[in-house]
Hints:
- It holds the Pfam family WHD_2nd_SelB.
- One of its GO terms (molecular function) is translation elongation factor activity.
- It comes from Shewanella corallii.
- This is Selenocysteine-specific elongation factor.
- The structure is a single chain.
- By secondary structure, the protein is α+β, with helices and mostly antiparallel strands.
- Helix content is 34%, strand content 27%.
- The chain contains 21 helices and 37 strands.
- A hairpin with a 2-residue loop joins strand 11 (229-237) and strand 12.
- It is elongated, with a radius of gyration of 35 Å.
Amino acid sequence: MIIVTAGHVDHGKTSLIQALTGMNADRLPEEQRRGMTIDLGYAFMDLGDDNRLAFIDVPGHEKFINNMLCGVSHARHALLVVACDDGVMPQTREHLQILSLMPLESLTIALTKCDRVTADRVSEVQIELGVWLANAVNLQGVSRQEFIVSAHTGFGIAELKMHLQTLSESEQTTAGSTPFRMVLDRVFSVKGAGLVATGTVISGCVSKEDRLYVANTASGPNNRAHKQQVRVRGLHAQGRESNFARAGDRVALNLTGNDHDIERGDWLSSIAMPEPVSRFAVVLSGFIPKHWQSVHLHHGASHQLGRIALLSEAPLTTSSANRKEYLAELVLEQALLPAAGDMLVVRDACGRETLGGARVLELEVPTRGKRTAERIEYLTELAACFQGANKTPLLALTVSCSRKAVSIAMQAWSWQLSEAELQQHLGFNNCGCDNRGSVHREHDNSGRADSGHGESTGLVSRGDWLVSRFLFDGFKTEMMARIASHHESNPDELGLGRARLLRVCHSGLPAALVNEAIDEQLAAGELTMTRGQLHLPRHAISLSADELLLWQTLEQMFIKSRTPLWTSDICEPLNLTPKQARALCYKLVQLGYISALLKDRYILSDTLQAGAAMILAHLEVHDAVSTSEFCAGMQMGRKAGIQLLEWFDRIGFTRRLFQANSRTLRDAELFEYLRPIKTPRQAQMPEPNHLSIAAASMSAHLSGHLSTNRAEGQSTGLSTGI
């Protein structure tokens, strides 16, 4: 257990700790010379049975308030020191206000220097302090005990020590399944050992040889340190060498494996950390905020400037009359990595006065619709998941999924959920978490991932995303309506590709969940996919007997020319007007026999698919395909080759690189069926140097394949159902 001190400068905090432990917490030469605490100090008191009580001595001078805030961050037990000769002083009041923002379980009050004053003066200080404690609304439910002591004479020290020992024995120290999390308040090097980082374990437990993630937010949002892990080579808990430490312990970790700077204010965690955020939703308390007010924000061992963006000027409906709360977003100059429920101390822009606190609600905030009624209602429901210092993460996860799709990894970090808690709440039998906190599922024999439906919880998961079944089914209904509307307005079009369907639906769901919805509809027979196009099963187009004869003649023309044909090239051989030629070509396009590169210019599907197959084969071993490589491989003129590449760009198959004459894949699924299946021996063989050989071979294969299919379709009738 750890007890943090608080109180005005020169009220005897360090002397009281020395009387309790026999240790001088002032370790710096400057502190000993001036007789004043400047930085955090540490001391330990033996309790017997190999147990120790740790003290964090904080500075009382207003100039060192940043160090004080670092020491009391996430404090559970506090020792408020008030000198009987001075009484309640400015820093006593500010420290008491800061303690009221912390998730305290107990507050011990020590009235020191009683040997210097009379009994009446002690009573006056008790009354004065009682008034301030009565005004601290957040401390009403906190266990409090008051002692009158003197570190100089030893009066009351024994009673205080006995109380602290009883408090430590009643402390519930169960590690549970909560992930390990700790903020670093000191980082230094020891000769022969290396890097040592100290801090207070906020949650979970840590052991030797554990691997932890470290987050460094000082380098800004582009820092990637949190993607790497460090190993715990050595461990000290409560000032002694140990193999294990748990929540509430003061620890020093000997870390190895880091290739980046670790400094004060960094975080250690047993689960993977997301990107630091510079904007997140909070609940403000303790003061009446102003929109775009500039403030100092303290979190853990770091502090920085930020602004308050009020979401609603009215206080929360759940707040009480004497403790009003406001919904807002904090906009920071430098990214932080808080978790939901963390309390940030808010001070004025000059850093002279503590205003109140900001409890973190949500790390992922929308760019639009921040102040809509639905958004305010959602944040109000999320705020209700906090009960005082306690939080109900599983309930909050359900609330979030009922409104939008959420990232499982982000929710695991935000609410500090372990693998066991995630599995229990999601209700997936075959799911688990990797060491990055992502949920994955086993695959069936078909190679497709399990749909990840938690029927018991009404949640749907795909990849790293999670959403409620209600929202998911609503999207499927909207998707089917969009496809039906597209068929109605474009009866001669085959359907929509996945990427285009996602754009048409304007859905807030991520692509992974959209693909899950499409897969469900395909499996249920509600949707059909033909040549990469999604359409309703009842949607069909067909050729008449005359059109079929015209197509047989036109196909031979395409084969002989080996290049795209204009409508004017088709009219005279087929004895058609331009209007009739366009109508025929349009229907042939929808049947998949030909494709329109641009207005009035068409290409045989055999040639088009050969080009797509060549691009897929080329990009398996190269980053991009250039225009010259493509034209050479297709044995096609540059103008026609560019038109074909631009057609691939329009349908979303490829993407042209910025200011470059080359392309990369965008949606490979449109032509995924063209990828050749290699034998193990073929997989070891080098790729051919001449792309024209591969293109010609694939073109011949596809020509025979499509001709066979067309012959089979013609033998059964003139109508081809799509």
